Amino acid sequence: MSQLSDISLVAQVIVFHNTKAFDQLVKKYQSAVRRFFLNLTCGDNELSDDLAQETFIKAYTGLASFRNLSSFSTWLYRIAYNVFYDYLRSRKETDDLDCRQVDAECSVRQPDIGQKMDLYRALAMLKDMERTCITLFYMEDLSIEKIAGITGCPVNTVKSHLSRAKSKMATYLKQNGYDGQ
């Protein structure tokens, strides 16, 4: 039913130029897209907001290219994935993602910041594709097949990235006082 309503909203935007229909799509997916970026950027709120905004701008301008070959959410995540990797490529020589620090303001407002910082540090240790796969699978609850569609990787490659990422994160977290509970 959700997919049907997404298609209906997309059709309203394309055919009738109904921007309120697109607003509904943004409201439905903005938290998930922002959370996706927040995990990929290891907690950088401002960057996550900027990347999410760019994703929705690209989705709006490219909405006519949506062919319903996958769900709208998969199509949107594919755009988000491309926005993130475009950002990484543009910043590669000056700002490595592994060097990013968690926003200091967050630590004041969030009581469980220690755990989040440890999670972001564990995520920061991963290769970009491993981080993307683990974020989509565990934090966005997407299937391996959908992740393969978003990233363009074969299913078995996604499984390999997930396995390596889980192993690296488990090792890091165990070394930092988490005993697997």
Give a description of the structure:
- The structure is a single chain.
- Mean pLDDT is 86; it is low at 96-111.
- The protein is built from nine helices and no strands.
- It has helices spanning 2-16, 19-40, 45-61, 72-91, 104-109, 113-125, 128-139, 144-151, 155-175.
- By secondary structure, it is mainly alpha-helical.
- Helix 2 crosses helix 4 (72-91) and helix 8 crosses helix 9 (155-175).
Describe what is shown at a glance.
This protein is mainly alpha-helical and 181 residues long. The protein contains nine helices and no strands. The longest helix has 22 residues, at 19-40.
- Determine the structural class based on helices, strands and strand pairing: mainly alpha
Major beta-sheet overview: none
Give the ordered list of helices and strands.
HHHHHHHHH
Q: What's the shape?
A: elongated
Total of helices: 9
What's the count of strands? 0
Radius of gyration: 17 Å
What fraction strand? under 5%
Give the % helix: over 70%
- Note poorly predicted spans: 96-111
Distance between the termini: 37 Å
The overall pLDDT average reads 86
